[in-house]
Amino acid sequence: MRGGVTKTAASRRxxxxxxxxxxxxxxxxxxxxxxxxxxxxxxxxxxxxLGHFWPSPVALVTLEDGRxxxxxxxxxxxLADGDGLERLYRTGNxxxxxxxxxxxxxxxxxxxxxxADLVVxxxxxxxxxxxxxxxxxxxxxxxxxxxxxxxxxxxxxxxLGTLRDARDRLREEVILPLAGRRDDEAAARELEAAHARLRxxxxxxxxxxxxxxxxxxxxxxxPLAQALGAYRPNAMSPLDRLAAWGEGxxxxxxxxxxxxxxxxxxxxxxxxxxLMVMLMSLLVTPFGVLAAIYLNEVAHQGRLTRLVRIAVRxxxxxxxxxxxxxxxxxxxxxxxxxxxxxxxxxxxxSPTFGTGGLLWASLTLALLTLPVVIVATEEGxxxxxxxxxxxxxxxxxTRLEMLSRVVLPMAAPAMLTGVILAxxxxxxxxxxxxxxxxxxxxPQVPVDGDFPFLHLERKFMHLGYxxxxxxxxxxxVQAAMPLVYATAxxxxxxxxxxxxxxxxxxxxxxxxxGALTRR
Amino acid sequence: MPLVKEQRxxxxxxxxxxxxxxxxxxAIRGLSLAYGDxxxxxxxxxxVPRHRVTAFIGxxxxxxSTLLRVLNRLHDLNDEVVREGEVLxxxxxxHAPEVAVAELRRRVGMVFQSPNPxxxxxxxxxxxxxxxxxxxxxxxxxxxxxxxLRSAALWxxxxxxxxxxxxxxSGGQQQRLVIARTLxxxxxxxxxxxxxxxLDPISTLKIEELIRxxxxxxxxxxxxxxxxxxxxVSDYTAFLQQGELVEYAPTDALFTNPRLxxxxxxxxxxxx
Lengths: 519, 272
Hints:
A: MetI-like fold; 59% helix; B: alpha/beta
């Protein structure tokens, strides 16, 4: 019946209030305003975040004084002296002039063209290179010019991509697992062979370079091994752009960060966030549920219980950084330090558990979200009519059987509601994590093929902290800004997916056990 | 310190029927009970005859539901309850320390005012008590479930949808399901706390018919507000007022020819 009630109530509420006076309009207005604000937030994140990966055309701008520059127009602002507009171009070639951005007076622009043969090269260092492709030199020294150069460049870059993948796979699947068993002779021989293969691959990737004629008349030489990709943005069809956009988004999701978190992807951060939240849920659910059962079903409902209940509810309001300090003092230095001196003495003075890590971060957040789970579960337990409990007891059930067979299944949806709220809160927390285990850069995710597979002591990356770091600690804030938006959008999506999973689970449970409200 | 400080009126022994111990299933002796300092039952002494329907009637708050809950020790849940006196089931004190409460509650089943089936399938509801006991093969269990549902006159209505949620049944069906669930664990005594007060007239008739049928092998104790119901289904009726037993007699005698004016006032509706 719950669905029915909410539906009719919702449809009644969503209709324009008629003859109910200003109060109803006020309420409807605030609902509309809240929805609008949420929508604006999502649209801003989506447009700014996902727009970044769209390969926009690159303009070749000729100024009055004859100078030229190439770049994408980003935005225009009025000049400080009120005299016309100034336009920001996102250029490249930072290794030549140290700049990636150029402000140009609109009135000083003579002509803007979009030549089809402008090439943008993504590089491992120094960001993008932009210019006309002059020549490509192969590893063997042969030199190609004109259109043939572009064809050769595309082919060589595809080849390099394949080689890179092969190298990464060799490192991860062969060399890393073998490195752990140095004393085994057969393994040592295998390792030697793998290293030889690695050297071959690296030799195959080395050599060759491309020459670009930049817009300001200079020449830029890029070693091919440094180039990650190249495209001609002005010659792309909409379909090509879409494909390039898709590839950009995919790389953002699947790769690690580059250039001090101002470029590249966020895969380790996604992984770290999700893993940390899952561990947190695993830790908080049993404790929270047991505590709620004690408070609601076992404890004598006297003044002390009431006091404890109020205290638990108030704990939910403690600022999260306080939990971070507690986690640092108790978990990291206290328990972690003790564990180090007992079990990891060989590694001292470098700490194993005595420094921030996945386990301590999950524990801290579990503590932070414990009140939420307790309160939600208690509310669920309180909603179960005493008749159900008495019915079970009257059939000869012990208290424990009554709890486990009747009360807990009925309260399961409420528990999951608590977990959903906990996940929503924990996934967005950044402040306490900075004290207990999050890292600016931890390209090694905490799960790998090495025993014990899940490395609880490792530091990890987190989307929330990544946003903070990219926005304020990067060298180039302008360049990091789109990534900040994209990461923020991603954080919202990750929380959404985690919540939807829990909601789906709750729905599944409540249809199986029959929700209380269905009566 | 005695629980009951003053007896408001001394019981009239002539107005209270007694049964020989061998014909009674429950014996209540000097039972008093208080919630904190609020007295609910005052020094009750009566016997409940075996394989008969005994009804407790009386105004709200007279203690009849409390009395029923004492009989299978549901009052144990409330730690404010203070009790004096004893209740014997087939001659054994149900409050004796060696009595297992769960076992007692299997022997003394209880059906509550509003139907309280568990949020499970019809089958699982009836199987609930059997599963707690364990040790039954699935086949044996299914046989008992069918027998219980037949005894509760519900089998024909649900035999094709035993896996459907119990909450999809109508109120009357739910109440019969609860009775079946209680019958399945094989009680000797069935306590019914206003079992039809939340039901429509037709469902009420079915429950009443069921009660009459069940007394062939069960001792039934019925608490009801509805005096016509007590008159229709019970063999003996006890009238309680303010926690005291006023009159206890064969139902016909009590309703047609009450010995005491208090009883007469109540059953003729002249009592404030």
